[in-house]
Design brief:
- The protein is an alpha+beta fold and 412 residues long.
- It contains 8 helices and 17 strands.
- The strands form 5 sheets. Strands 8-7-4-1-9 form a 5-stranded antiparallel beta sheet, with no helix packed on it.
- The relative contact order is 0.14.
Length: 412
Amino acid sequence: MHRVSYWKTTALALAGAASTLSVLVWLNRATGHRGLLAVGALLLVLPLIGFVLIAAGGLVCLWRDARETSGKPDTFAPPAPTIGLLSRVGLRLLLGPALRPGDVVRVRSRDEIEATLDASGALDGLPFMAEMAEYCGRIFRVHRRVDKINDMRNKTGLRRMHDSVTLTGVRCSGFHHDGCQAECQILWKDSWLARLSGPQAAAPNREVEIQSGPPVGDRESGEHDRTYVCQMTDLWEASRPMSSFDLRQDLRPLLWGNVGIRGYLIAILTRIFNKVQSLRGGAGYPFMSEVTAGGGTSADNADLKARETVVIRSKSEIAQTLIRGRNKGLWFDRDMVRFCGRSAVVRKRVDRIIHEATRKMVVMKTPCVMLEDVVATGEFLRLCPQHEYIFWREIWLKRPGEDSPDMAVSDF
């Protein structure tokens, strides 16, 4: 029935566009007064553009939904670093000298970086962590320009970041944070990096090997009472408030090259359509059915191992394991729907991460699984560039060839 909802809104938008265009044509023929025609055109052109965008968004969502139904990969995915729109047309100078996706950089020496830090070991509120020292002097490619972050500590939404980028394949090992396993992307201030050109600019796109944390026996016995400081815990201090009506945040990802033109249009048209659907009470994209019966999932442990190949279950199977979108407290986000039905390789099991709000180590009662190359896209967060690994419950995964049994549910 969600497709019926998509078609209804699309048809209404097309009818609105046709009616508005008809009125414009009638005004052109019926009046010889240029001033009246200009006023009429001015009043009707914005509704016409709005109807066209809504209809285009509806057609895009219908197309994406059809691809999902047929088992084809989603058309929007975390893109590789690309050349920004202004750079493509020779206007990069308008964006200033700041680093852009695809630039090759050398991480400055530790002494150079420490000269930029305040007494707390941070620059503009962003800490330079001990895990970052091993990358000093090495060459990498800029992955994304970070213009905003999602506030996970105070749940206030998106906040503005300045002068920051991520580097391809560079993530936090958690080695100096008692083996935190989140593998968050490390943020780098522009002043911590030096852009390279010519023969030096030869850094490939590569995944950097992540060191494992210290053995369990080497961790502090009082870690449950210990508080930690890392970039994720201090993103609030490193960012600034940003109005949701600030439309510049929607343009930066395209202009800078965080996302290509095709992916940008798909994301923006989908967001416009979803907003209209929300206002009129229609189904949004991607559609996830609500299961009202049940009360949780079984605690069966599939004991998945690193490098093991798995298949992500269908969204209808996963829906049966959720209560208000969660499974034992873990949120199944709509950004995860695009991966349903896809094969992936287990990266590792995750049972301990630092909580952004409490700054304490959280040991999970039910471990999660991290999958290789399965990261958040930021599409539904206004193209937020934080592409972190997604955590999966084992009940959401199956081994290849495994039957899909009834997803029995039980209380938490």
